[in-house]
Amino acid sequence: MEDTEIRGAPSVIDRYFTKWYKTDLKGKPCEDHCVLQHSNRICVITLAETHPLLQKGKAIKSISYQISSACSRLENKVSGKSKRGGQFLTELAPLCRITSTDGEEFTIFSCVRGRLLEVNADILTRPNLLLEKPSTEGYIAIILPKFEESKSITEGLLTRTEYEDVVSKRAAMKGLRNHYWYITMQCTDAWEGGRAKWHTCNILEPKKKKVQKGELSTRRQFLYL
Amino acid sequence: MLPLKEKDRPIVRALLDAGCCARCILRFCCVSLQSAYRQNYEDLTCELQSFADTRETSISGDSAEKEQQDVPPCKKIRLDIEKGGDEDGKDVKESAEKTESNICVVCLGVLQHFCDKDFAKKIAETVMAEKYEFHSLVLSVSLPAQLSVREHSAWLLVKKEMREKTMCLGKDDVIQVKEAYKWILHSLVSQELGVPALAKSLFEVSVGFKHPETDGDCHFLAATCSGCFKPAKNKQSVFTRMAVVKALEKITEESFRRKFSCPPKRPTTLCALQEIQCLHVPVFVAGRYNKFSRTLPQTPWVIDGERRMESSVEELITAPLLSAFQAEGFNFSSSGREDVDVRTLGNGRPFAVELLNPHKAQFSTEEVHQLQETINKSSSKIRVRDLQIVTREAVGHMKEGEEEKTKSYCALIWTQRPIEENDIEFLNDIKDLNIAQKTPLRVLHRRPLAVRQRVIHTMSAQYRDSHHFCLQLRTQAGTYIKEFVHGDFGRTRPNLCDLMKTETDILELDVESVDVDWPPVIPEPESQKGRSSLPEHQHKDTPPSQEDIQCHPLGSLF
């Protein structure tokens, strides 16, 4: 926002991209991702500014696109206009693992279904790009959703406003951090079973869990709680 | 007198018996005398009949020898479609022979009933109704594929006849139905329309025939030569003429005889006229265009079926051309393209328009210039120069130059860090900077992912204020300027952010020149010079009230 004031014109990201967010990935608090979707449907996966890696002066020890012994995102190759040969990713496919100097490991996920076009190899040699310019040169990967899914892949993601909402609620609940974590994990586990029955907990009375049955239709609905 | 020889007599007899028409018989006798085919059909039939009936000892062609009983069939040669078909009825055999099979078993009536003056008139009327401007024409004929099968069957009959008489003849010597048809029709159509019918012409009249009754004739070929019949997207049936001809070349005589009757079965219906179509070869018009607007796309911009931005360069240029050439459609191409928010100034960008099926194709230099004026008057957002009619081959020059040539741009740059005048001077000293560009994100959805090496030959920076400067660049064609400036997520290296050591962005971009020396420059006519230079003058000096058209390439921000 500040940026726009300085330049008097929207930035490259504001001009061509829509920002989408996914918070607390895999139930891990504050591990928020940001998906920049270009008007031509291409998605750039980046860390959201609230991601733990970008907080409290963390430093990066290592970044690895080797997500299993058999699969490295660095070996991804696409050819031709139709991008044949690219690895196909689902929402929760891991893209890379980042270890901070204090020993914590973070996994970055795809967040959207689509074909992997490229990963950012520059951050392997210059890890600080990730910390200094997380939403531009420090991007993680570029994904091309299927043409017919270009609208639906962002349905489970948060808009910028919804994301800001989550962030401010998070700040308000600082005192209840532990309970909040607990609740988040409960709900996320339920979500990962697909459309599942789930439990809500009364945040104000964390010890006495008041169980409500309901159906979780979108991730968004959960986050409004 | 027909140029038939003694050796032809058994062939003529066999084919007459098989129900072949007189002109097809001439074809199988390899008569290449065109006038023979142009004779009146009834006369020709009588003559052939008498030739066949003549004893072998006597010399052919003596019409006085002709017996009385041969005359009636000649007069009744016009067929009666309702009758016939009952080949097994022995009691009516006599009458059946005379009435049922006047439709030729080989050409299915094409050379009998679609070859006369009346038909030529019909063609002429259809052509005239389309109001084309033409000075000659080429006639093309499209025949049902089964005609090739029937031709083959008749050919085998002729071959059998010859084998008995130990003669030899190649299938290639037989005159093609199409060829004979054109021999007859060319002069007739030519008379009706008053222009020559040639082997090659810019204007094509095509006549198509169909014969649904015998469409099944080809089907047996699919079983024997399945490889020849591959379904294609744009074909209604796999039995195209080419596929059938190919299959007939492969099939053995025995196999053919087993599966198809020889001679062919007699049809009960006549060929039908499917269509008479006119087609003029495309005309290519080339020129250069300027685009003075930042809200005008080069081609119509449609997203999800919804139109974004009204009009486009393409539409503004082609609308007057389409109506002048009375064309049915067009293909627009240009030497590269600019984004919707980019202007093209200077001498403009070369373009070419292919006008499809133009009804009018002849234009004088003055008329073309007039057309250019019409386009220029229609909108102030674009301007066209060097408009001319060119050949298809010449259009290739435009695309050839695309990658090798240089282009000049002027960009308005924003810098995050405040700058002084001397902070940008170093840019002027950079020469032939090599950069590596990954396919920009904004086009990556439709282009292959690749790293392209490009050269920025020169740059020249002019200071504006503490956050802005103008950058003029001369680059290799194909360089993505916007990405060079903002870096495209670091996917273009080095980029202007790297050079300036601060975040930079591009606010406006103009193409100043596209250095492709095609099409040739057309000098303005003397009489027009004063007038036509005026609009350009206006473009350069119009006050900022008109946002699109401004004095300085990057004026709108200041």
UniProtKB/TrEMBL annotation, chain A:
Nucleus among keywords: yes
Keywords: Cell projection, Nucleus
Entry keyword annotation includes Nucleus: yes
Gene Ontology cellular component list: dendrite; filopodium tip; growth cone; lamellipodium; nuclear speck
SUPFAM superfamilies, per database record: Single hybrid motif
GO molecular function: actin filament binding; actin monomer binding
Localisation: Cell projection, Dendrite; Cell projection, Growth cone; Cell projection, Lamellipodium; Nucleus speckle
Gene3D superfamilies: 2.40.50.100
GO terms for biological process, alphabetical: dendrite morphogenesis; regulation of actin filament polymerization; regulation of filopodium assembly
Family designation: Belongs to the ABITRAM family.
Protein name: Protein Abitram
Upper classification of the organism: Eukaryota, Metazoa, Chordata, Craniata, Vertebrata
Automatic annotation (TrEMBL), chain B:
Disordered: annotated span: 517-558
EC number(s) recorded for this UniProt protein: 5.4.99.25
Protein source organism: Scleropages formosus (Asian bonytongue)
Enzyme class name: isomerase
Catalysed reaction, written as an equation: uridine(55) in tRNA = pseudouridine(55) in tRNA; uridine(54) in tRNA = pseudouridine(54) in tRNA
InterPro entries: PsdUridine_synth_cat_dom_sf, Pus10-like, Pus10-like_C, Pus10_N_euk
Gene Ontology terms describing biological process: tRNA pseudouridine synthesis
Protein name per the record: tRNA pseudouridine synthase Pus10
Keyword Nucleus included in the entry's annotation: yes
Native organism taxonomy: Eukaryota, Metazoa, Chordata, Craniata, Vertebrata
Family: Belongs to the pseudouridine synthase Pus10 family.
Pfam families: Pus10_C, Pus10_N_euk
Pus10-like C-terminal domain ranges (all copies): 284-515
GO cellular component, as recorded: mitochondrion; nucleus
Gene Ontology molecular-function annotations: metal ion binding; RNA binding; tRNA pseudouridine(55) synthase activity
Localisation: Cytoplasm; Mitochondrion; Nucleus
Basic and acidic residues bias locations: 526-542
All copies of domain Pus10 N-terminal eukaryotes, residue ranges: 104-278
Keyword terms, alphabetized: Coiled coil, Cytoplasm, Isomerase, Metal-binding, Mitochondrion, Nucleus, tRNA processing, Zinc
